Amino acid sequence: METYSFTLKKTVIAGAAALSLLTAPLFTTSTFTSGVAHAGLISEANAAPDSGQGRQGAGAGGGQGQQGAGGQGGKKGMDKVLEADEDSDRPPWAGGNTDQNPHSGSGGGKPAGAGTKKGDEFGDLIVLKRDPITGEPLTDANGELLICLDVACTSTVPTVDGEIPAGVTAIEVDFGRAAVARSPDKVTDKALTDALAKLTADGAVLSVDPAGRLVITVDGVSSTIDSPLENLALYVDLVEGLASASTSPTEAALGSLATLDTAASLLAGVADKTGDISVDYVVYNNVISDVVASGDYYDYGSFTYTRTYPMDYSYYYTPDGGVTVLSATLDINAYLTAVNGVLPTAGGVTLFSAAADDALEVIELVHTQIHDAILPGTVTP
Prior knowledge:
The protein is of the alpha+beta class. Among the domains are: about 50-90, no CATH class; about 175-275, no CATH class. It is about 35% helix and about 10% strand. It contains 9 helices and 11 strands. It has helices at about 15-25, 50-85, 185-200, 230-240, 250-255, 260-270, 280-290, 330-340, 350-365; strands at about 5-10, 10-15, 145-150, 155-160, 205-210, 215-220, 220-225, 315, 325-330, 370, 380. The strands form 4 sheets. It has a 4-stranded mixed beta sheet with strand order 10-8-9-11. Strands 5-6-7 form a 3-stranded antiparallel beta sheet. A two-stranded antiparallel ribbon has the order 1-2. The protein starts with a strand and ends with a strand.
């Protein structure tokens, strides 16, 4: 097998490690060919002019220039002073010899136990044509991935040797608040501990809000788990438990609510309220948050979903730019059909992502205090 070297946001990942870590979410071993590289990643050459990569490059260059102009001269001057004082009591690791510093962890690097950020290796991930059930990327006769040129993926273009062809603008998956999935393990572990403490508090009664998010009521006082980190931690622990023969802490705490329906709402609680949850979003997020290993796809094959939201949700709207505020009653199911379309006929990850996207739309709906017009799906007036 040939060896490749890939550079992503100044992080170099080489050879088989790069293929297993970066391309595995996009391939399985049955579809991967050695001529296909990191098609799910956008290199700096292909990045948009206003992308984060471009700004990073500019900032790094500026910093280096400033250091070369003044910083190096100052350091050299200080070295001469230290070298002249042969009787100095300075420790051997002074003057830049950080590898000898016993206080700097392992060899001057980050302190031991500082943790790593999940997803550091993942950069800009793009929309690909995928199997609607498993989420596995589809390829053409040459083993090249099919890059979607529109959100509905009605038009595609194949990669060229695993790369985005020149002149092709790929659609990047926007993770928004879901970037918390890249947090260190200790952060998400604490979020899970905090969330479970709420769910298992003495006298806690669990229910769900209109979007399916978890609500805890203790002594008549109700609160919704709306922290992106806590929702993510619960989602990960729940779906891992549902896929295992053992019972996860979240499964035990949720009882009858420990279902993939709840998982879809938990994932919605991680995302931006004004964003979207697509198949690519779900597949990439599962790998970044370690729900599945690179190269694997979570099995949503047993998931079923129909829209059974409240048919009498009350909301306020202003028909005249804020002068008058009126109330109305909404059938949320009809509203979702109007804004998100009919549910997909395919099951699996396509249906799961549609359910999560529905929940996300409802979260935005209930967070808007006064709408600027009457909403589709309104029953009365």
